[in-house]
Amino acid sequence: MTVTVGLGALSIDEVVAVARHGEQVVLCPDALAQVASTRGRIEELANDPTPVYGISTGFGALARRHIPTELRTQLQRSLVRSHAAGSGPEVEREVVRALMLLRLSTLMTARTGVRPVVAETYAAVLNAHITPVVHEYGSLGCSGDLAPLAHCAMALMGEGPVRLASGERVDAATALADAAITPLVLEEKEGLALINGTDGMLGMLCLALHDLEVLVKTSDVATALTLEGLRGTAAVFDEDLQMLRPHPGQAASAKNVRRLVSGSEILAAAQEEFAQSHVQDAYSVRCAPQVAGGVRDTIAHARLVAQRELAAAIDNPVVAVDGRVASNGNFHGAPVAYVLDFLAIVVADLASISERRTDRFLDVSRNRGLNAFLADDPGVDSGHMIAQYTQAGIVSELKRNANPASVDSIPSSAMQEDHVSMGWAAGRKLRRSVDGLARVLAVEVLTAARAIDFRAPFSPAAGTQAAVNCVRTAVAGPGTDRFLAPEIEAVVNMVTTASLLREVEDAVGELA
Length: 512
Hints:
Elements: E1 2-5, H1 12-21, E2 24-27, H2 29-46, H3 72-83, E3 87-90, H4 93-107, H5 116-127, E4 131-132, E5 135-137, H6 146-156, E6 161-163, E7 169-171, H7 172-178, H8 190-195, H9 199-229, H10 239-242, H11 248-261, H12 265-278, H13 283-286, H14 288-310, E8 318-319, E9 325-326, H15 334-362, H16 385-401, H17 423-454, H18 462-472, H19 484-496, H20 499-508
Parallel strand pairs: 1-2
Antiparallel strand pairs: 3-5, 4-6, 6-7, 8-9
Helix pairs in contact: 1-4, 1-9, 3-6, 4-5, 4-9, 9-11, 9-14, 9-15, 9-17, 9-18, 11-14, 14-15, 15-16, 15-17, 16-17, 17-19, 18-20
């Protein structure tokens, strides 16, 4: 696909397509013409003797100094160079590309006052798959993601290190020359327009939302597998019971589980014993729709925030629709930071309930007739004992990541920027949490599939059988202990690429 920038708000799927899959971008001609028209207003103000912030003044706490015309190119260049002060490990390519696309989208709103060549150069660098080297630390989430965006702006100027599509690290001047891209010489306002936005944190939000849409459905698959493997009851997932508490996410999750276990021989055979001996399933099974549903509803709220942000023009100052150039606070990352933190909380809880379900399989006092630790020969074999340790270690980290970044603020710029969002940090930890959730769910799926095999000769439902079959394409069935790490990683890959979910949906239809 080709993504058109400037034709309206980008979608989350378009952000992912460019960021993760390297799709090309094109600029809307009408929007580019409006960019050129707006630039005229900046040039008028540049010639005005009255100081205008970002055009003829310094920045931040230095905004009181009026900059003469002959120093303004140096002003913009110095701004970018000084703000490219990141440190630490390199940020992932997909995050940098998302950040670049979203900054380009704001440039194409015609509210930043840059020349068309700035947007054209940004698009050319993206399409040439030149990725600036951006570092882990350097953004406080206000005034936007300054250091990350400044490293990208440096590359447009032909300065600093970048990575090519091959992953090779080269200097930006060489990369631009090889791609026949002329380095930018920045004019009034343009350096500021290139670095003053919430694009990094929003890019990470978009990527996380895309991944969580898959993982929350996979969580329902894992629940259904565990329900069968533990010979529980599906009656608690009945629609009328769910509608007594009418949260849409809860209803969707319960509906998925009902569909996935429909027709299960394992559950049908266990009904009489369950009624006589067990009465109720544990909370981690019985309350799965309430937890996964709350996660779904949180994702829906975060998606709404992301969609609003994708329609935004984030810069300071901006060229308003009536032509005035006005300072504002739209660069503050609070709205994005809050939902990034909120998602980290629910991701941690979804992983936590998954780990608790997995643990039930391993304890002979709770697994309803299965071998200890699902081992082939308990004592000689350890089965999935340590797989649960891996889950527990991940869940513990996710709980630490659930501590919100957005409640912190360290004043900067000589107290001019005295309240910041820490949204970039919220995005960084959410990425680690999303990865951790995928791994925890993979261990539950792997363990539940093994338990279901132990329930032979009774067969699982069509949906859960599809999941087991998918696992068995890479992981053998029960037997003596094997090297477990590669088997876990194989199922992690099935979860993160959505291949497991696709196999299940091919069997039962698209999940809610």
